[in-house]
Design goal:
Elements: H1 5-11, H2 22-40, E1 47-53, E2 59-62, E3 66-75, E4 81-83, E5 89-93, E6 99-103, E7 119-125, H3 134-149, H4 160-166
Antiparallel strand pairs: 1-7, 2-6, 3-4, 3-7, 5-6
Helix pairs in contact: 2-3, 3-4
């Protein structure tokens, strides 16, 4: 998670030894991360993900906050799922966001099957703990504080400052 329970309790000015609100605060942390991911249109918390590629290409663009590749599979000439050896591809950052997976052994890519999953990349996405940008942490803190202080169902979804903080970093589909 981008924020620890201790960090948020300090932000909320809660006594560190008091654990009576820990379940509530943990739930608010998870909700704030979900809200940030929805607004930003990418993963913040580190999770496993799968990206399918329908076209056979030697360069696969993965548009995400990339962490690592777990596996790459492809459809062989018999339309069977085959795991690609890590020596058959390399990962190249293409900008500050996303990566290209370059297939170096393109003799593996000859399936003619009309499928949405000719190549399947399983990966870890999201930020490593400790590397979450401050703008995300700040937006989460603002939402958590607002929700903690206003536990009744209010008319506002979250403070307007959250939109101002996150909007410049939003990824479009």
């Amino acid at each position: 998670m981008p924020l620890s329970l201790a960090e948020v309790k300090k932000w909320l000015r809660l006594f560190d030894g008091d654990t009576s609100e820990d379940d509530t605060v943990n739930a608010l942390i998870a909700s704030a991360v979900d809200a940030c991911e929805s607004k930003l249109n990418y993963n913040v918390a580190k999770v496993s993900a799968v990206q399918n590629f329908a076209t056979v290409s030697d360069v696969l663009f993965v548009d995400c906050q990339f962490h690592s590749v777990q596996s790459v599979t492809y459809r062989n000439e018999l339309d069977q799922i085959t795991v690609m050896s890590p020596s058959d591809y390399r990962v190249e950052p293409c900008d500050d966001f996303g990566v290209n997976i370059v297939i170096v052994n393109d003799s593996l890519l000859f399936s003619d099957a009309k499928r949405a999953d000719k190549i399947v990349v399983s990966l870890r996405v999201g930020y490593e703990d400790g590397s979450v940008p401050n703008f995300i942490k700040t937006a989460c803190r603002l939402m958590i504080a607002d929700w903690f202080d206003n536990r009744a169902d209010g008319k506002k979804a979250y403070p307007s400052a959250v939109d101002n903080i996150l909007f410049p970093h939003r990824r479009s589909n």
